[in-house]
Design a protein that fits this description.
This protein has three helices and no strands. With 72 residues, the protein is mainly α. The longest helix is centred in the C-terminal third of the chain and has 37 residues.
Length: 72
């Protein structure tokens, strides 16, 4: 009987096993509440804007310094 159970497991293809395992893992996830998700989304957007402004400033400074060094 144990051999029969093993054969049934082996007949399951990799795609079926992937979706079965993925579904099982997603059930274990602790999903954020709606207020948490909104707050974290705003946090990500603010950080993106701040980093974008910082990188734009660094790019501007680098271009100006390169212009001074090369005499353009």
């Amino acid at each position: 009987m144990a051999e029969k159970a093993k054969k049934v497991k082996k007949s399951e293809n990799a795609i079926q096993r992937y979706f079965r395992e993925t579904t099982g893992e997603l059930r274990k996830v602790s999903w954020p509440t709606w207020p948490e998700a909104r707050r974290l989304t705003w946090l990500v957007l603010v950080v993106m804007v701040v980093v974008g402004i910082f990188l734009a400033g660094m790019d501007f400074v680098a271009v100006e310094l390169l212009g001074l060094v090369l005499g353009i």
